[in-house]
Amino acid sequence: MKVASAVSALALFIISGTALADGRIDRIKETGAITLGYPESSVPFGYLDDQQKPIGYTVEICEAIAAKIKTALGLAALDVHYNPTASATRIPLLANGTIDLECGNTTNKADRHSLVSFAPTTFVAQVVLVARKDAGVDVNDLSTFRGKTIAAQAGGQTFKLISMLNAQYGYGITVAPAKDTGETFLMVSSGRAAGSVNDDGLAYGAVASSKNPEDYRVGTKGLELAPYGILEPKDDPEFKKLVDTSVVELIKDGTVARLYDKYFISAIPPRGINLKYPMSEPLKRALANPTDSADPAAYE
């Protein structure tokens, strides 16, 4: 029984490996389908509406990419499937072929390039602090959190950054792990944490989604710039070229800017919240000169 199971597992591995080795383009042609990974609670990048349908700024960019792939490959139809992801699962799901693109809020970091590729940048975040107005801290001065607790998403870049700064300056901050943006904000709203650290787009989304947005402050002094790119599979240059070309076309024809206006400065479903967050200068520069660089200096 064990031998049979081992043989079956090996056969499955070989079949899966062969399918992946053929590349995404061959598989998309063969199946007539593409699978988009998305986060379920990263307002406004990727989340669920009141019908449990994936929507969001990056989700819609990916859907537009899928439409361009359909045209480029001359397909009569292309089914778009969706698969939820989290910070801990997005790279493994891309690597094993479960998803073809990850459409959320993943920071383009150089140390991730050994595992995945990134499409040209479609958002440039600043890592900021968020706190209740009555918390007795300054969201633009990390030192005022000395000896207090800051919530950060476990496994994310913000958790690594705040931990590094805490160690570097000896603030004695307790960095409390949370599973996602929603939980980091809940820890702040419930008083379990003096503040949270997050990318500004997500921070504005969390505050705008709260019962009393006026009770919170979002920092304006960023701790770090964080360019976001749609995740692509590693070592598939043909597919990367197709996706990257599609992204650049969507930037040049104004689609990305229109989607930005839709999700950042307009009322968004399902509750009609408005982040009131105009496009930043770093993002304007990135869209004017598309790049998939992981270097924050490229966006300054």
How would you describe the overall organization of this protein?
- This protein is of the alpha/beta class and 300 residues long.
- It folds into 2 domains: 2-122 and 229-299, Periplasmic binding protein-like II (D-Maltodextrin-Binding Protein, domain 2); 125-226, Periplasmic binding protein-like II (D-Maltodextrin-Binding Protein, domain 2, 3-Layer(aba) Sandwich).
- The chain is 39% helix and 20% strand.
- The chain has 10 helices and 14 strands.
- It has helices at residues 2-21, 24-31, 57-72, 90-95, 157-169, 181-189, 200-209, 237-252, 255-264, 281-288; strands at 33-39, 41-42, 46-48, 54-55, 79-85, 101-102, 116-118, 123-132, 149-153, 174-178, 195-199, 216-218, 225-228, 231-233.
- Strands 8, 9, 10, 11, 12 and 13 form a 6-stranded mixed beta sheet that branches. A 3-stranded parallel beta sheet has the order 5-1-6.
- β2 and β3 (46-48) form a beta hairpin.
- The protein is globular.
Shape: globular
Binned, the helix content reads: 25-40%
Count of separate DSSP helical elements: 10
Report Rg: 20 Å
The CATH level-2 architecture of the largest domain is identified as: 3-Layer(aba) Sandwich
How many structural domains? Answer: 2
> How many β strands by DSSP?
14
- For CATH, the homologous superfamily of the largest domain is named as Periplasmic binding protein-like II
Name of the CATH first level of the largest domain: Alpha Beta
Task: Provide the CATH topology of the largest domain.
Answer: D-Maltodextrin-Binding Protein, domain 2
Low-confidence stretches: 1-21
Percent of sequence in beta strands: 15-25%
**Structural class assignment:** alpha/beta
Largest sheet: 6 strands, mixed
